[in-house]
Design goal:
The complex is a heterodimer of chains A (about 220) and B (about 375).
Chain A (H helix, E strand, L loop, with lengths): L3 H7 L3 H11 L4 H12 L5 E5 L5 H7 L4 E6 L2 H8 L10 E6 L5 H4 L5 E7 L7 H14 E12 L5 H22 L9 H7 L3 E8 L3 E7 L6
Parallel strand pairs in A: 1-2, 1-4, 2-3, 4-5
Antiparallel strand pairs in A: 5-7, 6-7
Helix pairs in contact in A: 2-8, 3-4
Chain B lengths: L5 H9 L10 E5 L8 E5 L2 H10 L5 E6 L6 H7 L4 H10 L10 E4 L9 H8 L2 E4 L7 H6 L15 H8 L3 H16 L1 H21 L10 H22 L5 H21 L19 E4 L9 H5 L5 E4 L4 E4 L10 H5 L5 E4 L4 E3 L1 H7 L9 E2 L3
Parallel strand pairs in B: 2-3, 2-4, 4-5
Antiparallel strand pairs in B: 1-3, 6-9, 7-8, 9-10, 10-11
Classes of the chains: A alpha/beta (about 220), B alpha/beta (about 375).
Chain lengths: ~220, ~375
């Protein structure tokens, strides 16, 4: 059914994912994971990490003492995540679940979480799925809960955009060869989060093309 | 096919080794209404366009799920198209507001990765398997969705064999052609590329009449390499280049090309097991008759007519074990876990492992059968 090369292409390359992401982000991805965890997690908080992949954000949240539910649709990614060292969690814990974005509503009731994170996920989703994510996040977060999204964006200034495009192609090819992984920029992330009813929305750019968007669920439930 | 689609068809056919993503979500075919059938496919651009072409004249809703731009069969086998992707497009596309019924037709070849029951449990939609080949879809739709036995079998007609040869040619030509260019100039490159095109297409044209499995396959590859070298040599001679370097480059490229092809040519056909995903030999399909409840899911999803249903009592039977291509669709779909892969040395792959990892190097994920 699949040629050798095709199988390489298809093989869920969970074991090479972390390496691929470091390559693609020129080593900055760990800063993004930390920035997300810093905004969402603190001791005892209930965090849902959607599209957890190999678990970097979930583990960073747990290391801050949070009670994390990490979901992904890829069982092999979860296998890698489960195998990671969890000696330094400081009282936090992670539950790994094979669950899709659209299945959150089956499993968790309204207000189940104090924080929801999604790192480099929106760029993988269709427009329908992106708006579904934002609506499910606003219903599953407790009032005042935090939504933290990190994703790739196209830089604002023309010279940064030019540099981004020049650097991106060879990087994307390399990451694609190493890990069958790539990312695509998302447009209007802040606007989408505001339109979905989140308040106090802030954005921090990590260099020029990675962004961390933080919004809060209104205190009186919408 | 529309004229404007020709460049896209060419791109998708010639570069079919790479993913090509169509937008996911809900597509309208014709003028569908609230009772029109709902079909699902992956987001490989070639598939979406072919479906649209083949369904010309029908009214239907088409859900395009995220298969990472890979065709349905390979995506399902590689874990890129699972029930999670189907649930996602069912829930987020708004299809439930467009129709009064809750029946979804899934592509049969997605059965290696898409599990029906979790979809039905999560969404309340009932699912049925469509035919193996989209060419049979019009007939199946005219019959109200019932699929006949032969429409469940994947075939490999000449046109598709020639097309599939092109999964190999561009990459081989790029690598070996560039090397020839560096070693002996542009004429050697032209000769090498021509020889590869002829040898690979010739070989695919002769499948399955020539053997590409077992020890005897080397005779086939040798003959194809010889054909390639002869064609490449003829190109050189016709341009007046009779010197040794060019001829040596052509011969070496032909041999190297066939060596590359021999790695997993079987995996680019629907007729044989792929060799890469079954390290350590091809597994046999085995049935635990005691567990079988006669649900017949396996019979509906087997693309090689390996399984059939016996009556009184209704039980699956492995009728043609030699035809099994180890795609694992039957194992994934069996509600009783009655089917497994077993290797000649006694190792086996458990159904739960296949559901978790699909066909990703299943040979590495075996357990010893306790006796």
């Amino acid at each position: 059914m699949a040629s050798y090369f095709f199988m390489r292409l298809l093989e869920s390359s969970a074991h090479r994912y972390d390496r691929g992401m470091r390559l693609l982000s020129r080593g900055r991805i760990d800063r993004v994971y930390e920035a997300v965890a810093e905004r969402a997690a603190s001791p005892g908080r209930r965090i849902l990490d959607i599209g957890c992949g190999t678990g970097a954000v979930a583990l960073a949240c747990a290391a801050r003492g949070a009670d994390v539910t990490a979901i992904d649709i890829n069982a092999e990614m979860l296998e890698v995540a489960r195998s990671k060292d969890v000696a330094t969690l400081h009282g936090g814990r992670v539950e790994w679940l094979e669950l899709g974005l659209a299945e959150i509503e089956d499993r968790f009731g309204p207000g189940s979480f104090d924080g929801i994170t999604a790192c480099l996920l929106l760029s993988e989703l269709s427009a329908d799925e992106q708006s579904y994510l934002l609506s499910v996040a606003s219903s599953r977060l407790a009032p005042g809960g935090d939504l933290v999204l990190a994703d790739e964006v196209v830089p604002a200034s023309w010279h940064a955009r030019l540099l981004y495009r020049l650097l991106r192609l060879p990087q994307a090819i390399a990451a694609s060869l190493v890990a069958r992984t790539t990312t695509r920029p998302v447009a209007d992330l802040v606007e989408q989060v505001v339109d979905a009813g989140f308040v106090d929305v802030t954005e921090e750019r990590i260099l020029t093309d990675l962004t961390v968007v933080h919004g809060r669920c209104p205190l009186e439930a919408a | 096919m529309r004229i404007g689609d020709v460049p896209h068809y060419l791109r998708d056919t010639l570069l079919r080794l790479f993913p090509h993503r169509a937008p996911t979500g809900l597509y309208r075919i014709g003028s569908p209404d609230r009772s029109s059938p709902v079909l699902l496919t992956g987001n490989f651009t070639l598939t979406v366009r072919r479906l649209r072409d083949v369904l010309n004249g029908f009214d239907a809703w088409l859900l395009v799920a995220n298969s990472n731009g890979i065709n349905v069969w390979c995506a399902a086998g590689g874990g890129h198209l699972t029930h999670h992707d189907v649930i996602s497009v069912l829930r987020t596309s708004g299809i439930a507001d467009c129709v009064d019924h809750r029946e979804l037709m899934l592509p049969q070849l997605a059965a290696t990765g898409v599990e029906r029951r979790p979809i039905e449990d999560a969404t309340g939609w009932s699912t049925l398997w469509g035919p193996a080949r989209l060419e049979d879809l019009p007939a199946v739709l005219r019959r109200g969705g019932s699929v006949r036995g032969r429409e469940r079998t994947a075939t490999f007609p000449l046109r598709e064999r020639i097309e599939m040869a092109w999964i190999w040619i561009p990459t081989m030509a790029l690598v070996l052609g560039s090397l020839s260019l560096l070693i002996d100039g542009w004429l050697a490159m032209v000769a090498v590329v021509t020889s590869l095109v002829v040898a690979v297409m010739g070989l695919f044209a002769c499948i399955p009449r020539v053997p590409i499995t077992g020890g005897v396959r080397w005779v086939t590859f040798f003959a194809a390499a010889l054909l390639g070298a002869a064609i490449g040599g003829a190109v050189l001679v016709s341009f007046g280049a009779r010197t040794a370097p060019g001829q040596v480059v052509v011969i070496l490229s032909s041999v190297l090309g066939m060596v590359i092809l021999s790695v997993d040519i079987t995996g680019t056909t629907p007729l044989y097991p792929g060799s890469v995903n079954s390290r350590g030999g091809t597994p046999d399909i085995t049935l635990d008759v005691e567990r079988c409840s006669g649900a017949a899911d396996c019979v509906q999803v087997c693309p090689s007519a390996v399984l059939r249903l016996a009556e009184n009592p209704a039980r699956a039977v492995i009728a043609a074990p030699g035809a099994c291509i180890a795609c694992a669709a039957c194992i994934v779909q069996c509600p009783e876990d009655a089917l497994t892969f077993t290797y000649p040395d006694g190792r086996m792959v458990e159904p739960a492992t296949i559901r978790r990892t699909r066909l990703n190097l299943i040979g590495d994920r075996t357990v010893q059968v306790s006796t």
